Each structure stands twice: as structure tokens, then as C-alpha cells.
TrEMBL record:
GO BP: any one term: lysyl-tRNA aminoacylation
Residue span of motif 'HIGH' region: 29-37
Short sequence motif named 'KMSKS' region, residue ranges: 272-276
Classification via InterPro entries: aa-tRNA-synth_I_cd-bd, aa-tRNA-synth_I_codon-bd_sub2, aa-tRNA-synth_I_CS, aa_tRNA-synth_I_cd-bd_sf, Lys-tRNA-ligase, Lys-tRNA-ligase_SC_fold, Rossmann-like_a/b/a_fold
Reactions catalysed according to its record: tRNA(Lys) + L-lysine + ATP = L-lysyl-tRNA(Lys) + AMP + diphosphate
Taxonomic source organism: Archaeoglobus profundus (strain DSM 5631 / JCM 9629 / NBRC 100127 / Av18)
Protein name in the entry: Lysine--tRNA ligase
Record GO cellular component, one term: cytoplasm
GO molecular function, one term: ATP binding
EC number(s) recorded for this UniProt protein: 6.1.1.6
Amino acid sequence: MEEKHWADVIAEDLLKLREDHRIATGITPSGPIHIGNLREMLTADAIRRAIIDKGGKAEIVYVADTFDPLRRRYPFLPKEYEEYVGMPLSLIPDPEDCHDNYAEHFLQPFLESLEILEIPVVVKKADEMYRNGEYEEVTKISLQQRDNIARILEEVTGRKIESDWYPFMPLCKNCKRLTTTKIVSFDDKRISYVCSCGDEGEVSYREGKLVWRVDWPARWRILGITCEPFGKDHASAGGSYDTGKRLAREIFGIEPPYPVPYEWINLKGVGAMSSSKGVVVPVREFIEIVPPEIVRYMIIRVKPKKHIDFDPANLLELVDEFEDGLKNGDRAVQLSMISGVVYSEVPFRHLIVVGQIAKWDLNKVLEIIERTGYRVDEVTLRDVERRLKYAKAWLEKFASERLKFEIAEKVDASLFSEEELEFLKRFANELSEDMSAEEIHNKVYEVANTLGLKPAKAFQAIYKAILGKTYGPRAGYFIKTLGVNWFKERVKEILS
């Protein structure tokens, strides 16, 4: 019996609890939001789709942590951003001066990406939630329950909490920092603070932020969250989910959401992606290069607790797997598909080769596709026109140099030895238009053996004749795609 897809297993668990669900996701827009961050979003969306497929109701709430303080000046920021460390991202200027603030600069391209990837979300910006009073009640509870919260944190983490610690960081009215203030006292309406900048003053319950370990379970209560995917760092023993569970039940009077911890996506040769370290492939850039359904599939096909090794140069194997899954009704493919997208029989690999032969001219591409045995109908036209753009973009940005080629205008006979020229002459004479790619490929070995030429030398001669270099796509398939008569003419030119 085939194993159920992980998203269906989670959906079934959730539907045993209730029929309507709010799935939370949250990312701090402190730098370019990258492919690694997408794991959280796509894990949530696979669960959402699976719940709906089973007759339940589900929506994703995306909390943009726009009120988090800037922790340090990241390598991609100018030196003057040192002065903004400790300030909320929503109060820091956009480094490129094209959005209202720092947080929006990194958030907007990501939200556009979610639309393209068909991940519908209810967007909640943390700075607006605090300012609008959505956190007011839970902030009051947190300050009143300060001692109990400190006890729970100590019990779960094993770390001592300082006697002057509070779970809320007032926003200094002078320096606009969250990380440099301390609470002196509070009543039902105001909070008194001192700041290391020298300022003393009062703020309302809307002017500041709960510390992360308290903010997270408070958010579950505010938004009615029933399920949340989160990175493995939060899932470790004594981590923020462990403290969050206790705080949810004992302080905020709710059940914690169903947890879905996930592993990191590692960028090949570099390691786990990180906005702050600049180790990223930005999502907005990536979905201009790779079809959105393939981006979805890359993550949805793997169980959340397994890490993903991501190598943009090895896209073709992933696309092959997706295309096979599409024919076989694979569940991961179903959960990855984008509305309005149609697939023809033409493989992405074929478009990579044909596109280069035709110099990316759509009409020429369609001619070659038809000549190589594919039916060109309305579906093929729509599919090829869409995916050809991705094939070209991926080839230019990520593909190995060995996949790139250009048909040589003219090839000089001096590139070849006498035995190579004899091979080309015999080989071309024995080819006919009605031969399959496999028959052409086998003919290379047959003619080479007859002449006592090593097959490797024979293939090199073919590639030199077409490209002027010693390697290229699989020879039989390549000649069939170019056209047997075209190849015969090329050999005739070389021999003349």
C-alpha cells in the first residue's frame, strides 16, 4: 500500500480535532526573504490544501515580524546602519529608499512571490498589531503574570531569569530602541521605563513589544491559531515551542497549536540559507527563473523533518521527477500544481536543447518540436510558450556550462584528424530522416567499430562538427532534433 503524503496525514490529524483551521506562518523581514523561508510557507500551504481536499476549512495567517528590532548591521547594509541596531524594522529607513521603511523593502517582493506561488495568506504586520491594540490584553496579562512567566521559562530552559526582567520591551520615545529599555513600574494604563540612552518616561501598552518567547504564544491566542510549521531551532528541547506550550496553557488559557517542525534547506556547497549572513537565493528572483509549480514541488515532495539539499544547477532531475509524477497522479505533484497551468508531452529537457538550437524563437522551437515527434496543438503552444521563458532564464542563470551550446556557423576541417573525417563521412551516409534518436545513437558505435575508432573519439567528432567543441547533448537525440538532413549538409560542408 502506497504511503500517504505527509500533508494528508497532518490534515487528517487536524480534522479529528475540528473542521476549521488557522495555520500560522511568520518570517522577520530583516534581509532578502529566501528559498529557505519558503519551506515554512509551502509546508503550511500543503496542509491547507490537504484540509480543503478532505472537506475541511483552512486559511494561512502570515505574521510579518515587522516590529522585531534590527539585531546587528548585516553585511549587506551600509556602515551608517550601525545607528539603527535595536530599533524596530518598521521604524528604520529603507536601505535603497524605494519603500516606506526597512521591513517593507524586504516584505513586498516576498508577498508578490506568494501570489505567484498561489499561497493565499491573511497578512498581519506585527507593528500594526501592536499599534492597533491587538496585543494590549495579552501584554497586560503578561506583565501581571510576570513571576509565573519567569518561573516557567526557568523550569523549561534551565536558565536563571534576572530579578528586574519583564516580558515587555517599551519603545524608547527618545532613541526609538526596544532593546535598551527597562520597565520600572506599570499600572493598568501606563508603563514607566528607563533607557540606556538616558531617557526616562511612560508608554502605553501599545508602545513596545513582548519578548519573543512570550510574543509567540500570545499571538496564538490573538489570532486563534490551530497549527503552525516552524524551524527545528524552535523545536529543540527547552526551545521556544516548549516554553510556548506551557505559557499558552498556564498564562493565556489556550491549547497550543499542532506543531509541524521542519528542517533547513541547504544551499549546495554553502550550507543553511540565512538572510543575515547573505547566504540566500531570494524568492522573488528564483520564481522568475524556475516555474512556480516546480518551486512548490521541490519542498512539498519532502517530509518536513528531512533536510533539503538545494542545488539550482541540478534542476533538470527535479523537473524530470515532477513530469513523471504528473503522468502517474503523484500526490506531491497535485499539491504543487498552479491553477491555469497546462503541461504538454514536451519535456523541459527538450526545451533546453531546442531553445538553444532555435535561438529561443518560439515559431522555430515549435517547428523543431513537431519534427521530433510531438503534436503541436493549443495545449502544446500554451505550455511551450510559458516554459520556454523559464528554460532560457534557468540556463543563463544557474545551468552548468556543459549544458550550454551554440551551433557553430562554420566548422573548419583542420579541427579533425583523417580518421575522424572518414568516420563523419561514413556515419552521415548511413543516416536517414526516418531513423529514431536511439537508432542514430547506436549507429555511432556501429560505424566507429567498423573503422576501429574509439567511440569517445567518434562522439567528439560529431560534437566538433556541430558545435566546434568536444561535448554536447546526447548525440542521437541532438542530431534528430537538429534534423538528419541538416547534419548531412554540415558534414558535406566540412568535407568539401
